[in-house]
Amino acid sequence: MLLDRALRSLCSQDVVPQCVVVVDDNSEPALRLPVSLKLPRVELVRQSSNCGPAAARNAGLALAPTKWVSFLDCDDLLIANTLGLRWRQMIDRQHQSSDEKVITGCSWIDVTPEMQPLQVRHPRPGNSPADFASGCWFSPGSCIIMNAHAALEAVGFQDEKLRRLEDIDWFLALSLKGFRFESSETVGALIERKRVQNPKSILDAAKVIQEKWKDLLPGSLRRRLDSYLQLESAAAHYFAGDRFAAIGHYARSLMLQPRLSLQLSPGWDIRSAGQFAHP
């Protein structure tokens, strides 16, 4: 079971969280916690209806008793004995700068559904709203540690109207309040590569985001955000097999934000995962 595997990856850490909140987004059958977890405190909360990832994360954030949080999707894994290293690196940075508006990330390994390694991604830092309007290159949530109290005080919870692209919406809002992203080269997680094949879900979310931000962003940021949303739409159509629609969305992305590369966000440094054995 995916949940068992994800939770046991937490048990493999040299430093474990004070509390783990497991959110069951009204799955069928209902989630059950594995027995004999070596974790200090685990809480399971079940949503009354399936509300999507934003609502699930909000439920977890509302119950989290600690200031610092990370997320862990049930189909991702933490690599053994890496969470403590990431935590100490983050605390060292905090002592140096006393800046609680830093989202700290790590490198990760893209893997297949069978957990075969594909490549290592090291996300580059991002410091400006223009970076955060360009994509959510650093977040799978399983790879970040952040001050949830500061984030919720700054912008509140994630927008539960969004079933897709909720991360870029939330982190863009945070960047406008002075949050930035720093990255550690520690390879901390195995992230299953997912290909969105439902273009309508992306288009619907993009419309919500565009309407939400159209009067709140200056023209340059709005065009950058719209360019990224067109890029997401192009990818969804491409992986759904509609290459003609994909080309159209990609062309619109380039017209909104001319560039010589496919990537719009700060992106990643990528290297081979051949050195990593099957977990």
Provide the CATH superfamily of the largest domain.
Spore Coat Polysaccharide Biosynthesis Protein SpsA, Chain A
Class of the largest domain in CATH?
A: Alpha Beta
Q: Return the structural class.
A: alpha+beta
Count of helical segments?
9
The CATH architecture of the largest domain comes to Alpha-Beta Complex
CATH level 3 topology of the largest domain:
Spore Coat Polysaccharide Biosynthesis Protein SpsA, Chain A
Separation, N- and C-terminal Cα atoms: 16 Å
Q: What is the helix/strand order?
A: HEEHEEHEEHEHHEHHHE
The amount of beta strand, in percent, is: 15-25%
What's the total count of β strands? Answer: 9
Q: What is the residue-averaged pLDDT?
A: 92
Question: How does this structure look, described?
Answer:
There is one protein chain. This protein has 279 residues and is α+β, with helices and mostly antiparallel strands. It is 39% helix and 19% strand. It folds into two domains: 2-192, Spore Coat Polysaccharide Biosynthesis Protein SpsA, Chain A, CATH 3.90.550.10; 199-259, Serine Threonine Protein Phosphatase 5, Tetratricopeptide repeat (Alpha Horseshoe). The strands form two sheets. Strands 3, 4, 5, 6, 7, 8 and 9 form a seven-stranded mixed sheet that branches. Strand 5 (102-111) and strand 6 form a beta hairpin. The longest helix is centred in the last third of the chain and has 21 residues, at 219-239.
